Amino acid sequence: MAGILPSLLAALALFSGPVHAHGGLANYTVGDTWYRGYDPGEPESEQLGQPWLAQYQWTTIDPIFEASSPYMPCNFPGTPPPSNHTIPLSAGDTLTAIYWYWLHPVGPMSVWLAPCPNSDCATANLTTLPFFKIWEAGLLEGPNLEVGVWYQKKFQKWDGTPAEWPVVIPENLKGGRYIVRHEITSLHVPGRPQFYMQCAHLDVKRKDGEGEGVLPPARWGRLFPGAYEGDEEELMIDIYAEEYQNRTEYTVPGGPIWDG
Ligand SMILES: [Cu+2]
What we know:
The protein is mainly β. The chain has a single domain, classed as Coagulation Factor XIII, Chain A, domain 1, CATH 2.70.50.70. It has three helices and eleven strands; from the N terminus they run H-E-E-E-E-E-E-E-E-H-E-E-E-H. A five-stranded mixed beta sheet has the order 3-11-10-5-6, with no helix packed on it. It is globular, with a radius of gyration of 18 Å. The structure holds copper (II) ion. Its EC number is 1.14.99.56. One of its GO terms (cellular component) is extracellular region. This is lytic cellulose monooxygenase (C4-dehydrogenating). It comes from Immersiella caudata. Keywords: Carbohydrate metabolism, Cellulose degradation, Copper, Disulfide bond, Hydrolase, Metal-binding, Monooxygenase, Oxidoreductase, Polysaccharide degradation, Secreted, Signal.
């Protein structure tokens, strides 16, 4: 933990202001247990393959700008950890994603899961693997898109404490290995959405006596790229435009959530 905050601060200091300062998912917690993520500010050789690393590699805090990017699934370069490097938890548990100094206030956030074929997450082809959305949040309250309270704004912390994003893994989810994908989309630059995503391996157990659980029907599956057209209004919207000054509703793109 100790090394993560200073390196992120150093990275942020290279940029001129909030508009150009980015970030990402640094750690995960389940209960009191912390799972370190990949740190783009630290040497790759000290991280890839380490037994503690269950997150996919991301080498820059910069966003991906193209919804059609082949790195939309799990960021760039998206190098997977070994399949047996996982964050273990039970269906119904809360997985919390931790960020430091998340600076952007506007845009949707979502969490996705993909079951790993044959439990082998690391060899899965990320761009043909269907993900289903289990959580989403957009604009929580008005007065409009620009200055209203988005979940993204509520989530950010300016005092150096961790920004926590807790999400319940659906209680009825089938046990097994999954790729979990957290995405923050920032919309503060009109017509140029910024996609920030990180992935990790989950090993989902069933609670005693709760049965085998289920997967959502195939129609819930979305591909990355593919889940977004890239030109839909929800991504291209100019939050500062006169025509949206009374708008208090926002639809998170990518289809409905499945919560079991
Ligand atoms: Cu940024």
